[in-house]
Amino acid sequence: MSKKSISIIGLGWIGLPLAKELIESDFSVVGSTTTSQKAKDLNESGVPAIQFSLIPYPSGEGFQKLFQSETLVINIPPRTKSNGGEHFLEQMKFLLGLVENSTVKKIIFISSSGVYPSNFKDGEYTEEELITDENTGNSWLWKAENFWKEKFKGDLTIIRFGGLLGDERVPGKYFSNKENVTGHTPVNYIHRQDSTRLIQFVIEKNLWNQTLNGVAPIHPIRKDVYEKNATDLGIDPPKSFAPQKDGEKRVISGNRIIELGFEFIFPNPLDFPYSL
After folding, report:
1. Which of 40, 125, 167, 269 is the most buried (most CB within 10 A)?
2. Are 34 and 59 a contacting pair, CB within 8 Å?
3. CB neighbours of 208 closer than 8 A, spacing ≥ 6?
């Protein structure tokens, strides 16, 4: 039986470890990076890579090979602060044009839990939440989700990741020595290792035509996370925390993926391992 072929658009912080894990699991993998030097380095390290950019039109050398796989993972977050969400949607349109003339039958679109409303609520935000252009917390990403739902004719699964942390990404580091830090609201995090495992889980279990939250099931408050990071890693905690307000709770549910059989290695963000 031939290997399952997977292309990854974006061999970044999540895409690269995902590629390595898929290769170890005997998938046929090729990925993209935006510079020719990084593509060269990755190929020499054993990760098949092609230089490919969307500026927003396709640019690169030999990037057609990315669209000869059965499954495509789209992992290019919008950089709305630098060049606007319109640019991101234009990238998606050009990418669709390449997909439509390819062998790609299945797509995993990496999104974010930021598409949920930023409003606080007593219950948890689940995949069934009604999101509109008026209440979404990330309009451009929400529009991109719907773009693929409307335009792609194959199987599509959207994964909405919470805060991606682990290794050198330490939440407490970003608030070290800061004053008036919000500490009483619950976190919606997922460890890097669980995020790549979740993508592979979707592929291996054929969980297509779904929207899934990639969020660890335990939601400690930020203060506890930051102070635990400080204790474990020897960094300074925040100097002070903002006054607590009642009702300030925004929790993204990760229950559905657990119900589908996924098991977290790190279900509690207080136990995330880091490497400074």
Report:
1. 269
2. no
3. 106, 155, 156, 157, 202
Joined together, the tokens standing for residue 228 give 């635990």
Measured distance CA(136)–CA(119) in Å, rounded = 9
Residues 196, 145, 130: CA angle, nearest 5 degrees = 105
Tokens of 22: 């898929």
Quote the tokens at residue 64: 């057609």
Task: Confirm if 156 and 201 have CB atoms less than 8 A apart.
Answer: no
Q: Which residues of 81-115 are buried (b: 16+ CB within 10 A; e: fewer)?
A: eeeebebbbebbeebeebbeebebebbbbbbbbbb
List beta partners, residue 58. Answer: 54
Task: Report the alpha-carbon angle 276-21-69, nearest 5.
Answer: 130
The values of phi and psi at residue 80, to 5°, are -65, -25
**Nearest CA-CA partner of 156 in 96, 216, 97, 116:** 96
DSSP strand E in the chain: where? 5-9, 28-33, 49-54, 58-60, 71-74, 106-112, 124-125, 155-161, 163-165, 189-191, 211-214, 251-252
29 with 6: CB under 8 angstroms? yes
Structure tokens at 204: 């291996």
Per residue in 33-87, pLDDT (tens digit) is 999 999 999 999 999 999 999 999 999 989 999 999 999 999 998 876 555 689 9
Q: How confident is the model at residue 1 (pLDDT cuts 50, 70, 90)?
A: very low
Candidates 3.40.50.720, 3.10.20.30, 3.40.30.10, 3.40.1190.20; correct CATH number of 5-167+189-218+250-266? 3.40.50.720
User: Tokens for 133?
Assistant: 């252009």
